[in-house]
């Protein structure tokens, strides 16, 4: 704003900054009396140029979807479900906020070019689905002159607003559940990719095990370098068949890893959950159709999308300072892949 800030105008009118912002941008959800009050005050103070007329077109917010290997979202089950549920939240909230949604796709080969394109586009803000982004990709957006919100990723050393999963909460819910079911030794199937979600789950697992008073043995952490379904299966089979003394329960970094592990354990002669219990993370649709149905962590993906829109609109409308990290909570979905251990 020129000459006066939203929060200052709101204070003068005894209204919230968000209410004033909605009126200035001609957004719905405000009573006619309040709308008239704000518009009259703005005109009386000589700031009529701040009012968006009803005839003006809706402004644009860009949703940039990043895939590391350039694979379309629908081509992999995990990313397809993640993307579809987040985009549903984004689309529904964008309409409520009165903006147009633009969607674009990029990968590690085209991201520099895409960032340059954004500088020339008519957008008020950018949402970036950054699940698979490393720090070198995220820093590319530093020079953009519009607000940027990272979705499903967070880099401590990069000053971007973000909406992420509360990974630590989710992992603690897993370990606490297994401990309450009587498990004293818990293994971990950890994806060692350079992805923030997996890093947070790794450190969260170690803290959760300690907090629950359980032992942690490094040999019970199985490191997985690959990320495709069949590749994960092959790597897990190679590593697990070499271990003769396995924990009675495992936590897997996501449902894909858990599903592959269930297949490997069966091929090695173990029964689930009679011999080995297993818990995933993500609550993919497929998880409840397995035999046995998989205990896992529910991520509120729709809520992530809604929260990301709310945050970017706040940054656009109020030009607020400071970096916001918003974490969306998780919920344990207990099914039949965990056995209760008798005392």
Automatic annotation (TrEMBL):
<keyword id="KW-0804">Transcription</keyword>
<protein>
    <submittedName>
        <fullName>Purine nucleotide synthesis repressor</fullName>
    </submittedName>
</protein>
<dbReference type="InterPro" id="IPR046335">
    <property type="entry name" value="LacI/GalR-like_sensor"/>
</dbReference>
<keyword id="KW-0238">DNA-binding</keyword>
<dbReference type="InterPro" id="IPR000843">
    <property type="entry name" value="HTH_LacI"/>
</dbReference>
<dbReference type="GO" id="GO:0003700">
    <property type="term" value="F:DNA-binding transcription factor activity"/>
</dbReference>
<feature type="domain" description="HTH lacI-type">
    <location>
        <begin position="4"/>
        <end position="47"/>
    </location>
</feature>
<dbReference type="InterPro" id="IPR010982">
    <property type="entry name" value="Lambda_DNA-bd_dom_sf"/>
</dbReference>
<dbReference type="Pfam" id="PF00356">
    <property type="entry name" value="LacI"/>
</dbReference>
<dbReference type="GO" id="GO:0000976">
    <property type="term" value="F:transcription cis-regulatory region binding"/>
</dbReference>
<dbReference type="InterPro" id="IPR028082">
    <property type="entry name" value="Peripla_BP_I"/>
</dbReference>
<keyword id="KW-0678">Repressor</keyword>
<keyword id="KW-0805">Transcription regulation</keyword>
<dbReference type="Pfam" id="PF13377">
    <property type="entry name" value="Peripla_BP_3"/>
</dbReference>
